[in-house]
Amino acid sequence: MPDLVVEHHGVPVLVLDAAGAPIATEQDALDHLIGGAFTRADVVAVPVERFDDRFFDLRSGLAGAILQKCVNYRIRLVVVGDLSRHLSTGTALRDLVRESNRGHHAWFVADLDALAERLA
What we know:
- The protein is α/β, with parallel strands linked by helices.
- The protein has five helices and five strands, in the order ββαβαβααβα.
- The chain has a five-stranded mixed β-sheet, sandwiched between helices.
- The longest helix has 12 residues.
- The chain is globular and about 35 Å long.
């Protein structure tokens, strides 16, 4: 499935294909997340599989850098899928997920239906 823009409750969402290029650097985030959504979507939904494992290791700084880029460009980031493998490694990621899901800039959801509910 190619990347596509869908609308949920009046909000345009760029849904990235799980089989697309990995997001392993800040430049990848600029190219695939920000560049892809910049003129056509307010939210970019990224399958967990697209992120390099370093994204989920908060000590690497990759998640913080990508989240900051999204905030700077006013693009909401939604990580979609099963995080259980990554959440079992420590509390820092669990804390980030919990705090992010309380806010408006980044969410972690199980599937696209959960994203649609959050946007309602």
